[in-house]
Prior knowledge:
Elements: H1 13-26, E1 31-32, E2 39-40, H2 57-60, H3 63-75, H4 79-88, E3 90-93, E4 109-116, E5 119-123, H5 125-132, H6 136-144, H7 174-179, H8 189-203, H9 210-217, H10 239-246, E6 266-268, E7 276-280, E8 289-292, H11 325-336
Antiparallel strand pairs: 1-2, 3-4, 4-5, 6-7, 7-8
Helix pairs in contact: 4-6
Amino acid sequence: MRQKRGKKRPCNPDNWVMKKTKTLRNSGLGYVSYKSKRSVSARKIRPSCGSKCRLKCSEKIKEEVRQQLFSGFWSLGDVQRQREFIVSYSDEIKPKYRYSSTQNFRAMNRAFYFDVHNVRMRVCKQFFMATLDINARTIQTAFSKKSSTGFVAEDRRGKHNNHPTVDPEIKESVPQFINSIPRNEGDNVHSVIEKQISRHLRASPIYIPDQYVTLIQSAKKTGLPYKVHVLNHETFYDLKVFAESFGSNFNVNTERSTVTWHDIKIIRVEKQHANSFFYKTSYENEEFKEIDVRGNKRSRPRKSMPSQISSQLVLAYSKKIPLAENKKKDIKDLIQKRIIPQYY
Ligand SMILES: [Zn+2]
């Protein structure tokens, strides 16, 4: 039997030119505009913000790294992914204080970042735009498309400043990291599940939480199904008890000065110093400071240290967490009134 062939489409040379132009444009290369026949020059990194910048961007990020960021961004070659990049590497900062008289003038500010060797560095807008050779309108457009690109809070990298440092071997190169940004809405776990649930709700209500497990497992229509790890009350440990069992001091360092956790940027732990952790409150600090969790040895007699910390883990709940009395009553009521089918 002969193989079926698809219907042959009429060829359209105009399309080829437009497609090629688009590829050139999205890769930051020079091209000749199809409509106006104007030639547009290739994207080129622009000079950085200079030494007067408050964020000292050019000290934090060297020229060769800027070049990598520039090429990484344009090698995405796709406007959608470039917008995702922009959105992932910026945050909205709400001004702390709003005075009524100036309210209208305090627009939402945005903070911009680049990841360099897995450390998120804040840069000024000018540096961000100059490094990628984009303008404010490109950023504006990226944000206005945000909802349509399917980004949700959980999926956005870089919503906060104190990222844990990751093993450099895992994510050394910038382009690799760029490639790990989800491609489009279709890859977005959250939205796939939401879709599945709303599809189900159109047909029938959800009566018991168990139904969600099945719905999530069957949410993906192609590829491997999602694996659902069902948790129960025994999954949770009481970390407060655990923390108290191995130390009581988390705020006073070995130089006897107090540190605010909010200011900590990097934390380091070492196997050979099990009772201490090390931290930096600024990327500019050369040395780590140390906090000994056992606290001040002179002032309090120490309990003997547990040899095996894991043995100290205590379950947070000793039994299943019961429904609140009122909720239980209401649910029974709904069953009695046959609003929830008696089957349940
Ligand atoms: Zn700057």
